[in-house]
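Researcher: We're teaching a course module on how sequence relates to structure. For the next exercise, students receive a sequence and then see the predicted structure as tokens, so they can try to spot secondary structure elements on their own. Here is the exercise chain.
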Amino acid sequence: MTGSTPFLIEKSDNFNRFFKKLAKAYKSDFVECIIEVLEDLIEDQYPINSRNEPLPRKIELPQGWSFHKLELKVSKGASGQIRLMYLVNIGFLFDF
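Model: And here is the predicted structure for the students to work with:
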């Protein structure tokens, strides 16, 4: 499957809701920044400013899934820092 990306991004309802609120506060710069980050995540799911994080003890991910946090700076100061949390499913790559 040449030319197709092996990863897709699926947005949750919570992501959509918070994205709309943040987009109103930060305007177009924020939206452009997030779009660029999401496009980059399709190509590289483990960027340098991302880290693998454990989940709370009661939550277990299925085999092949991992939880990551990506730290971004969209503006100056502490209020301009954002954490994008995402799951990566690498198990589907090996299901034939």
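Model: If you want an answer key for the exercise: The CA atoms of residues 72 and 82 lie 5 Å apart. The chain has a mean pLDDT of 78.
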